[in-house]
Amino acid sequence: MSTQTPSHKYQVTLKNRSTVAERTMAFQFEKPPGFTFRPGQYLEVTLLNPAETDAEGNGRALSIASAPHEDSLMVATRMRDTAFKRVLANLPLGAPVQIEGPNGSLTLHNNTARPAVFIVGGIGITPVRSILARAAHEHLPHKLLLLYLNRRPQDAAFLEELTGLQKQNANFHLVPIMTAATGWSGEKGHLTPDLLKKYADPATSPLYYLVGPPGMVNGVHELLNQAGVDDDDIRLEDFGGY
Ligand SMILES: Cc1cc2nc3c(=O)[nH]c(=O)nc-3n(C[C@H](O)[C@H](O)[C@H](O)COP(=O)(O)OP(=O)(O)OC[C@H]3O[C@@H](n4cnc5c(N)ncnc54)[C@H](O)[C@@H]3O)c2cc1C
pLDDT, tens digit, for every residue of 226-238? Predict the structure, then answer.
């Protein structure tokens, strides 16, 4: 039986915005009555009558970072200097946008015997935050490992919250990895086969989820293939545009 939720267009208002890392903001939109989605899915967010626009148009694909049990629909993005993001950054609370969704199938597998290994670069954390918040809320039995790659801790959106989720959920292990941090006592540098082996045991048949900028996703995909991981066990979503 299909569990797909049909995608629809809605007009929703901005309820809140907050900074969740350096140059990175989260936006909370009202959740339309009856709107359902599966953690890991995304929305097409379109600005209505924006003051400026550019060649990419008025819409962007943005993953739903909130979990279904949470009140609002949250998205989060790196605030680069593009027309879409300038307008979004200045959108008054209460202003409407159009959302279309939910779309996508980067959702947690059903087989609880197989662990999930999330390998996430930067803002790729958005769909994974949703999956992890739901797993903690619903006490899912899946073993969940997150290798969370950022340049520095101040670039890592939701880091504190993820640390809290690890305390709530004994099945979840968070490994933040900083590629360019000084004074960071945790894991440092790029993901290597040795670092992967240190945390993810291939004997447990994990499913790997790769999310982030295309360069990072392609690089990790290659690394996994070289480590002998079959493509059947890899799910990926690259955030085109980064
Ligand atoms: C399924 C999905 C989920 C996503 N979720 C998020 C999210 O949660 N948070 C987030 O910040 N971003 C997410 N993105 C990326 C997002 O849609 C934007 O592309 C990104 O934020 C860059 O937008 P921008 O306005 O900064 O730059 P843009 O003006 O959109 O793009 C900058 C440059 O990248 C090129 N480009 C744009 N889109 C693509 C593309 N799809 N493929 C190849 N090149 C492209 C443009 O031509 C331009 O040269 C997601 C993308 C996808 C496909």
Answer: 999 999 999 999 9
